[in-house]
Amino acid sequence: MSAADAAVHRASAFDLVRDAAGRRPLLVLGAGLAAAAGTLALTEGPTELAQASINGVVAGNYYALGAVGLTLIFGVLRLVNFAHGEFLTLGAYLMLLFASFDLPLLAAAALAVAATAVFSLGLEVGVWRPVRRRGAGELQLLLFALGLAFFMRNAIAFIATSEDRQTGADVTTSVSVGALRVGRTELIVTSIGIAVIVLVAIALRSSSLGRQARALADSIDLAETTGVNTDKVVLVTWGVSGALAGLAGIVYALPAGAANPNLGFSLILSIFAAVVVGGIGNAYGALAGGLLIGLVQEWATLVIEPSMKVAVGFGMLILVLLLRPQGLFGPARSADR
Question: Residues 7-21: pLDDT tens digits?
């Protein structure tokens, strides 16, 4: 076979995979994950793979919580909120603040989630809504979000100092099942995070506000003509987004045992990757994308340095965009779009 024929053959094979991914994305994804898992089980061992999978679910949990809040805002307002990562940091530091009043960590965490939601609502009422009503375009809103992100990060560092703050959580006690181990704190916060993810998915599908939010994501003008109170839905969306971001920061900080002002910045790129992989603006896709990115990154640590796992997550992002540019759960597009 000549070099030209080999190139044509490779191109044809890629086109076949891309077409299959367009028609049956979850089937192709499942097949790819099964092949990767089988290879890792054979080369690295089933126990190591199982432990990495547990770690991937833990990591995917806070990616998914952060991603769904980010994509809800984009879906409803077409706003890329680059300050979303700082909401994660704010949630973790508010938990530390409330815990300093001798509250149990879980109670402090619950108050921090509520306070982050209130902060998010305050920004919408006092900042975002007036800016939108003055006719700010997408570029201005994007730059505003970037400025807000830098302001929040430096304000937290100024108030709380840039040093790591210990959460006081138990990070040494673990639960063992055979050779597999998971930290007790990790198990608790991951279970809470998964429960919240399930509740959010149910609410989006079944509740009246969930249906209205999905209607706004399709067309805000059409939703208004059908009687949807768009201001109310936008407020609820900001509140939910802030609460989920605050919870994501807490779910990350508690098992780590510490928080620092760069917490959100260190996670936001993987959260954006989860949003794009799942399908921008699709909350279900964000949930799946977060878990997928977490799993792939932790599997990668079996064969590469852990410090490079974020690059593997972006490799997954590039692969998904090549095969299905709209993401796993994005609407199908015609060939001319």
Answer: 445 456 556 656 665
Identity of the residue numbered 259: A
What kind and span of H or E run contains 142? helix 138-160
DSSP 260: -
């994509």: which residue's tokens? Answer: 71
Tell me the backbone φ, ψ of residue 104, rounded to 5 degrees: -60, 150
Classify residue 105 by burial, with Cβ atoms within 10 Å: 0-12, 13-18, 19+.
buried
Distance, CA of 47 to CA of 45 (rounded, Å): 6
Residue 323, both tokens = 């095969």
- Residues whose CB falls within 8 Å of the CB of residue 267, separated by 6 or more in sequence, listed in order: 62, 63, 66, 85, 88, 248, 252
Q: Which of 87-96, 205-214, 241-250 shows the lowest per-residue confidence on average (mean pLDDT)?
A: 205-214
Q: Tokens standing for 298?
A: 């932790």
How far apart are alpha carbons 112 and 93 in whole angstroms?
8
Could you tell me if 249 and 71 are in contact, meaning their C-beta atoms sit under 8 angstroms apart? no
Distance, CA of 71 to CA of 202 (rounded, Å)? 17
